[in-house]
Amino acid sequence: MDFFPLYLSAKLAVITTSVLILISAPLAYFLVYVKCPGKFLFEALINLPIALPPTVIGLYLLYIMGPKGYVGTIWGEVFGGTLLFTFTGIVIATAVYSLPFAVQPIKATFEKMDHRLRENAYVLGLSPVATFFRVMIPNSINGIAAAAILVFLHSMGAFGVILMVGGSISGETRVASIAIYEAVETMNYREAWLLSLAFVPISYFFLLLVNRLTRS
Q: Which residues contact 206 (CB under 8 A, 6 or more apart)?
């Protein structure tokens, strides 16, 4: 029984979550507090992965990240090699796929926050950047933690977008969801059940944690 795909899924989820939390908090702040025309178009673009099938997202990323795509060309010139069918490639694909699940909980937390906290910080002479790090973030820990958990679970279970961009390379892109699919295809139901069973307690525990965080 090969449990390495589970490790690879967990590694992918941890890295994706770390990257998305770093970029999603500023994005959520922009969506809530910055006034600019056409902001709703940008927010709709961020939320687009919720509406699109994973294979459609994967197809577009396959083109963009390919050797002739814009991102793939820049990557090849700077780092050499290709993004497709690599662990780095599936991290990028999963980050795009999971972005809304990071931004929306943090955005909701910012919207519920007492606006007087920001106003008092400005009165005390804090800059917008200092206010963000010293006031907004400390008072949004529950929302950020909930976002991190949702992204982690969403990344752990990603399938279609990873299959399109990364394929199934053992030790590189063959994550647990793909290993389960392949086990069923080859009628190795024991391996499929064991890998699937591992997801249940992990997902259940983290969902309980999300519910606890969002209620407090």
A: 149, 152, 153
